[in-house]
Amino acid sequence: MGEVSGSRGGTREGGNGDDTRRRERLLARAFVRLADTLAGEFDIVEFLQSLSADSVEIIGAEAASVMLANARGELRLVASSEERMRLLELFEIQSAQGPCLDAFDTGQAVQASGAECRARWPVFALRASESGFHALCAVPMRAHADTIGALNLFRGSDQPFSDAELEIARAMAQVATIALTQERAIRERSMLAEQLQAALRSRIVIEQAKGMLAEHLSTTVDEAFQLLNKYARDHNRRLGEVARDVVNRKIPHDALAWQPGTS
Amino acid sequence: MAREDERRERIVTAVTAGGVTTRVDELMQRLCLFAVTELAASGSTLALIVGDELLGTLAGAGQHSSMITDLQFELGEGPCLEAFASGSPVLLPDLADGAARWPVFTAAATRPGARAEFCFPLGVGATCIGVFDLYRDAPGMLSEDQLADALVAAGIARDALLYLQDPPGHPGVAALLDMAGMDRIVVHQATGMIAVQLDATPADALARLRAAAFQSGRSIYDIAQDVVERRVRFDG
pTM for this structure? Predict the structure, then answer.
C-alpha cells in the first residue's frame, strides 16, 4: 500500500486524499452514465468506450478494453481505450491465450506482471511487452451464473495491480454488466412492443378498410371482408397490408370490386 | 433498484396468490383487483390503445370499472389519451382540476361519481400499447407507496402483455380482443364508411363521428351502428 503505481504515475492508494476524491468523482460519473442506460436512448458501444477510458483513469492503467462473448460463446472486442490495445486484443483472441480469456473461462479475476506474464502466457506476453505493456489484468463480467465478457487493464510499468485496484476494476465490470443486461432487456421489450403495436394497429385498419369498401362498393361489411381476403389471396399479400393500402387509398377501391367469373 | 425488485416481487406474489397463471386475461383481471384492494382505487381498467383509439378493455374491477376509461375514447379527450401520447403517467388527485383541459370528459366523468384519476401508460421507450387507469370516488392523491406500487403493477401488466402475446395453450392478446372488444369494431367500420362519404382521412372521419355523438347526446357505438346499417349518413 502507499506505493506509486503505473507509468501515468501519481496514483496513490490510501494517503493521498485528492486522488481518492478524484477516483470517487470518476466512479460517480460512470454511475451517472449508467443511469442514462435506464432511460432507453443510448448507445452501448459508446458507453463501453467511455467506461474503458474511465477505468484507465480511475484504476491507473495505461489502456483498457471490454470483450464480450457472442451467441456462440466466442469473445470479441467491443471497446478499447486506444488503438494499440485493440490490435493486441485481436491478437489475444487469435492466439487463444491471455488474461482476458482466462478471466472469461474461469470467471475469476486474473493479474500478472513481468516474468509471471511470460510464464503464464508466453506467446501473448511477448507481444504485449512489444506493445509496451508489462502488467496485465482482467476481471470477468458476470451476470448471475453466466460470464458474459471481461474488462481488461494493461499497465506500462511492471507494477502489479493492487487488491484495491482490482476491487475497483470489479466494480467497473459490474457497471458494464448492468448496462449490457439493461440494454438487452430494453431492446427485447421494444421489439415485442412494436410487434404487438403493429398487430393491434392492423386490427383497426382492417375494420376501417371493411367500412371503406362497404361504402364505396355498396356491400355489407362482411362482403367487404371477403373481398379484402380474396384480393390478398389473389395478390399473395398479407391481409393487414392490403387493408392499409385500401385505407390510405393506394389500392383503388374499384380494384377490389367483385368481378363475375373470377372467383 | 433493490427496493423496486422487492416491490415487484411483493406485487407478483399478491397477484399470483390464487395460483400462477399464464392467461393474459386472468392476469390483467388480478392486477385490476389489486388496484382496488391494495391501492384504494374505486375502480380500475387495463386498456389497449392504438393512436388515439381504444382497441378494447382487457379487464376491469370495482365501480363503473371500464366506463370512465371508455368515455375518454368516446369523447376523444381525457387523461388516458394524454398518458398514452406523452408516455408519462397523468395524476389527477382532483378531477375538477382537469376541467380546463378536458371540459367535456371532466363533466361526464364526475356525473357517475369519479373524483380522482391516475393513468399509467404501458410503454417501452416511444412505443406505447395501452394504459392502466385507476379512479377514485373521492379526491385525494395516491400515497407515495401506492404510487410506486401502481407504477410497478403497470410494468407487470406491460410485460405480461408483451411476453404473453401468443401464449401456447391459451388465448393470446388478439383473441382476447375478439372476446372483449366486439363493441369497438363497429366504430372502426363506421369510421371507414364516413371517410368515403366525406372523402376524408380516417382520423377526420372519427373526429366527425365523435362530434356527432357529442351533439346528439347518444353513444358513439349507437351512431356507429346506425352508420354501418345505413340508417345515418354523413354526406347528406
Answer: 0.72
